[in-house]
Amino acid sequence: MKGSIDILLLSLIAERDMYGYEITKELKEKSDNLYHMSEGTLYPALNRLHKKGWVTSYWGDNEAQGRRKYYQITDAGAEELQRKVSDWNTIHSLVSKVANGFV
Predict the structure, then answer these.
(1) H-helix or E-strand spanning residue 58
(2) If DSSP codes are grouped into helix, strand and coil, which group holds residue 13?
(3) CATH class of this structure's domain 5-95
(4) From CA 53, how far away is CA 75, in angstroms rounded?
(5) Is residue 69 within 8 Å of residue 28, measured between CB atoms?
(6) Mean pLDDT of 31-44
(7) Phi-psi domain of 65 (left: phi exceeds 0; alpha: psi -120 through 50; beta: other)
(8) For 87-103, what is each residue's pLDDT tens digit?
């Protein structure tokens, strides 16, 4: 999964603003329970994305559920996501061509 965390997080946050637990839940569901991201991986990754200017965050209040920190993709984050997905597709294509018959 190394190198794919940014793509996964940016892709999910690009769909809609999400809070931490919601991100891990959505990732688990969309991966058909194949991948579970721990808090120890999630929050350092979100902080890194924030420092790079690819996501912003804000506090949302919900009477029933309390205060939650939501993450939102920035324009720079959307551009980076597009670049990373393009790079990923290129690598996938290369591996498919080289490993033809083995995958």
Answers:
(1) strand 55-62
(2) helix
(3) mainly alpha
(4) 9
(5) no
(6) 94
(7) alpha
(8) 999 998 999 889 886 65
| Token pair for 27 | 């990732």
Q: Write the burial class of residue 22 (CB in 10 Å: 0-12 exposed, 13-18 middle, 19+ buried).
A: middle
Which pLDDT tens digit goes with each residue over 4-18? 899 999 999 999 999
- pLDDT, residue 67, reads 87
What is the identity of the amino acid at 7? I
Give dist(CA 49, CA 34) in Å, integer.
24
Domain layout of the chain by residue ranges: 5-95
Query: Is pLDDT at 41 greater than 70 in this prediction?
Result: yes
This prediction's pTM? 0.86
Q: What's the CA dihedral at 52, 79, 4, 27 to 10 degrees?
A: 100
- Burial (CB < 10 A; 0-12, 13-18, 19+), residue 6, is middle
